[in-house]
Amino acid sequence: MRVLVTGGAGYIGSVVTEELVNDGHEVVVYDNLVKGHRQAVVAGATFVKGDLLDAATLRQTLKDRRIEAVIHMAAYSLVGESCEQPSKYYQNNVVASLVLLDTMRECDVSRIVFSSTAATYGEPVSQPIYETAPNNPTNPYGESKLAFERAMYWSERAHGLKYVSLRYFNAAGASENCGEDHDPESHIIPIALQAAAGKRPHVEIYGDDYPTPDGTCLRDYIHVIDLARAHILALGAMSPMSNVSRIYNLGCGGDGYSVREVIETARQVTGKDIPVRIGPRRAGDPATLIASSDKIKRELGWQPQYQDLRVIIESAWRWMLAHPHGYAE
Predict the structure, then answer these.
(1) Tens digits of per-residue pLDDT, 157-206?
(2) Which residues pair with 170 in a beta bridge?
(3) Of 48-52, 180-184, 311-315, which gets the smallest average pLDDT?
(4) Most buried one in 26, 60, 72, 292, CB count within 10 A?
């Protein structure tokens, strides 16, 4: 299949691109490189530097490359920043995405897999979280993702768009070629590994008085390769004869892992001391966020292969050791 991956030079997008290429798909990465890295685009994929708001370049790319489906991953994703600059997130995550939908329709591209988020649920009413749980985002980031899910819903009814929306929980780990290189870094696993490597003085734990076994937040971590495989299954589910659009959670379920467990596992993997400092709770941080991924397992046959936290952290550590300066080297 000929697939356009928006945001394919980013962390998750680069691994999705890698898996698509490995499976024999023709992949075009469309990225403005504001957050992504040109070096993250794997060999075998075509790269186009472009912004989604640039409808002319986007239209030309879809037509010239005869694109059949889109995996839409281009977005801003920092919760705190979204609260400080909500219009920035609506402009990039909603307005630019609507340009993508309109341009797809002009070019007769009717299939899209969307990179969504567990932030659409907001404060969970029960655990684990099922796709039927209420959507009540507590920040502009989650609101912007939910807004585009609704836009796809109405585009399906108006224009026959077929979509699969994948609501991620905590993506982590690395493939052999692609890993996390954010500025600033906001994810606990690379932060812990940076502390192990001496690149930061400590890891901040935001609250240790939650109603959890060790007082720190519990989260559901999913290996980025398992995440990527779900996108490929979603593409296959949208055959030309398919008349069903779907929303799926993506996590590993179980009991999740606490912040302290992540740090301790990082110590074991690296053999390094990782200093910790306890800070106050962050507003809006639920004590527990655990996914039920039963639906995608049942309907698409998805089975995560790298569920163990140690395996996830080991892959991230290998990538960091091989790329001590990220993609800058």
Answers:
(1) 999 999 999 999 999 999 999 999 998 888 999 999 999 999 999 999 99
(2) 221
(3) 180-184
(4) 72
Amino acid at position 54, single letter: D
Angle at 228 between CA 227 and CA 234, to 5 degrees: 95
Q: Which helix (H) or strand (E) holds 3?
A: strand 2-6
The pLDDT tens digits for 51-68 are: 999 999 999 999 999 999
Find, among 108, 133, 103, the residue nearest to 251 by Cα.
133
CA–CA distances in Å: residue 289 to residues 127, 227, 325: 7, 17, 32
Structural tokens at position 191? 């932060």
State the residue for tokens 């982590």.
172
**Has 141 been annotated as catalytic?**
yes
Of the candidates 141, 163, 257, 306, the residue annotated as catalytic is 141
Structural domains in the chain, sorted by start: 2-172+221-250 (3.40.50.720), 188-219+253-290+299-328 (3.90.25.10)
**Phi, psi (degrees; rounded to nearest 5) at 112:** -145, 135
pTM (two decimals): 0.95
